[in-house]
Fold Sarcoglycan, delta (dystrophin-associated glycoprotein).
Amino acid sequence: MTQEQCTHRNNVQSSEKPQVYKVGIYGWRKRCLYFFVLLLMILILINLALTIWILKVMNFTIDGMGNLRITEKGLKLEGDSEFLQPLYAKEIQSKPGRPLFLQSSRNVSVNIVNSNNQLLTQLVTGSNGFKARGKMFEVKSTTGKLLFSADEQEVVVGAERLRVMGAEGAVFSKSVETPHVRAEPFKELRLESPTRSLLMEAPKGIQILAEAGDIQAICRNELRLESKDGEISLDARRIRLMRLPEGKASTSSSSSGTRQTVYEVCVCPNGRLFLSQAGPGSTCQISNNVCL
């Protein structure tokens, strides 16, 4: 290449403007980016303010939130708490010296299940009443003495005194076994069967005692006192047998002109009692028309 050609090329290159390459976002894209960044910062500040407000209102601390505290022994709730879902806990107890209230708009149920999720014991308190389901039910005193127990075989009352406050007393559809029946002081004791018979049995004996009152046995048909191997003792200063029938003596044996005022008590072969006019000898044989 000649010298003239090189000089001409250099002049052409020098006459051209230098080319500049711009790096970045410019124009409307830059303005949109700044707007989105500003909007994001505003949202972050609002979210941070709401988070701080929620933490303040809910009383979040290191130990828990609100009335809920996390302790070494478990969870501690102060005040009223509402559970919208089932609660599973090993132990629920109140603060020392404070009562424990369980409240529900429908019922409160306590269920005990086994490993196979089969119901063993159930306690339900609702608007219809109180229901308990289980193999055995016991009530004990603070000293551990049994006061009441019930199972499928028997019901045991362990208290020293059983009081029935109803006006009609106690009603038993089956037999009653007890070693002692006693009324309260200055109260009368009544054993009554309005539509059926009343039967009292004992393998050794029955003792009816009234130390400060009377004993009355009233029935509609017949009253039977029976002793198979022993005797029946009526121990009193005066024994009165009211409205006994009077046997009629024959005309030959009756005394005429005098009014009979002395009688003797006679017993028929069937056990019926009657009165007979007393005489020098027994007049029961001649006045046995009542036994017929």
